[in-house]
UniProtKB/TrEMBL annotation:
Keywords: Calcium. This is EF-hand domain-containing protein. GO terms for molecular function: calcium ion binding. It comes from Sesamum alatum. It comes from the Eukaryota. Residues 27-62 form the EF-hand domain. SUPFAM superfamilies: EF-hand (SSF47473).
């Protein structure tokens, strides 16, 4: 279900629409038939890597990711999506395989949205205008000014850095996003002209920043930014739930090592620990490797700790034991120091229209 609110310009994606689609076998089969036919350009009854690309892009758009090539983090997730379809080796997949993977993805998305709903914000300058005209504007901006360390920075550099420190709560879309930079920030600063040549001081910063912010307000009124916003806290609870359910843990570990390459003695290289951990991340309430820097550090350090030693390959049971111990180590770290991450992605248009993945076929 999407909860819409016109007064606050947001809608909440909680995954219930997706669950309804996948759980209705007849409707979902028709949905898959339509999508498969749409993608199967050469009509050979199979989908090539090239034919799968629009589906991969659509899954990314439905997740609120920026376009491929925009950032290494999102590109990593796109690569993982494609790998799930092709298992990293197949050149073509059948309709049955397509349906299986699509179902898994959609159910995973629904579960993720239920656990951590994505709020779609329409940022149109109103909240930023309120902030700029509020009594807290001056003290907050002076506080931000004192945090900026740019010894040789120009007034323009200071203003850009300060805009990057504002959040969606203050009505500012992510200022580092290329679309926001070219469509909002650059025009807003350009209209300040020669005043940006002034020496940097607290007074000039405050005066010119306010002018820049007012320009941003006007530009957002003309061209609102649509931002997918989610707040996640990784506290180890997902790992604890998984470790406390032996049946679920065994099933997850089996799935994680299913495609693991083995030597002639059936042993698995410890170098595969990262890939296996990445594949079970969602089941343990963890982000994919490459998606969150702080979590990457914790996960990679745990892998290194258990990858140490001279033994490079281990039997399947020992490999599963190592994975379980890695999960336990990550859990203890997160329980002691939870990692909170606020993710804001500019999607430029509402998710419902930016992705054709969840749009039903025309009658």
């Amino acid at each position: 279900m999407k909860e819409k609110s016109s007064s606050t310009n947001h809608e909440v994606m909680d995954g219930s629409d997706i669950m309804e689609l996948v759980e209705n076998e007849k409707v979902f089969s028709n949905f898959v038939d339509h999508k498969f036919q749409e993608l199967d350009i050469d009509c050979d009854g199979k989908l090539s890597v090239q034919e799968l690309q629009p589906a991969v892009n659509d899954i990314g758009a439905a997740l609120g990711l920026p376009a491929q090539g925009t950032s290494p983090q999102s590109d990593h997730i796109y690569a993982e999506v494609l790998n799930e379809f092709t298992h990293g080796t197949q050149e073509k997949i059948s309709k049955t395989e397509f349906k299986e993977v699509l179902s898994d993805f959609l159910l995973g998305m629904a579960a993720g949205l239920k656990r951590d709903p994505v709020v779609i914000l329409r940022i149109d300058g109103e909240d930023l205008h309120e902030f700029v005209t509020s009594p807290t504007f001056e003290p907050e901006m002076l506080s931000i000014y004192s945090e900026i360390e740019l010894p040789d920075g120009s007034l323009k550099d200071y203003i850009i850095k300060a805009l990057q420190k504002l959040t969606v709560d203050q009505g500012m879309p992510p200022a580092t996003d290329p679309w926001v930079m070219s469509n909002i920030l650059e025009p807003a600063l350009e209209s300040l002209g020669d005043s940006l040549q002034q020496p940097v001081s607290q007074e000039t910063f405050l005066a010119e920043f306010k002018r820049a912010a007012e320009n941003v307000v006007q530009l957002l009124k003309e061209q609102p930014a649509i931002v997918a916003h989610s707040q996640n806290t990784f506290d180890g609870s997902g790992i604890r739930r998984l470790l406390s359910n032996k049946f679920e843990l065994d099933k997850t570990l089996d799935s994680a090592i299913k495609g693991a390459p083995r030597d002639r003695n059936g042993k698995i290289s410890k170098e595969y620990l990262g890939v296996a951990l990445d594949s079970l991340a969602a089941s343990a309430g963890l982000p994919p490797l490459g998606a969150v820097d702080q979590m990457d550090h914790i996960m990679n350090e745990a892998i290194k700790m258990f990858d140490a030693g001279d033994v490079k390959t281990v039997k399947e049971d020992e490999f599963k034991k190592l994975l379980t111990e890695i999960l336990g180590s990550i859990m203890l770290q997160l329980e002691g120091n939870p990692v909170s991450v606020s993710i804001n992605s500019v999607v430029h248009e509402p998710i419902a229209s930016s992705s054709t993945l969840l749009q039903p076929p025309s009658p």
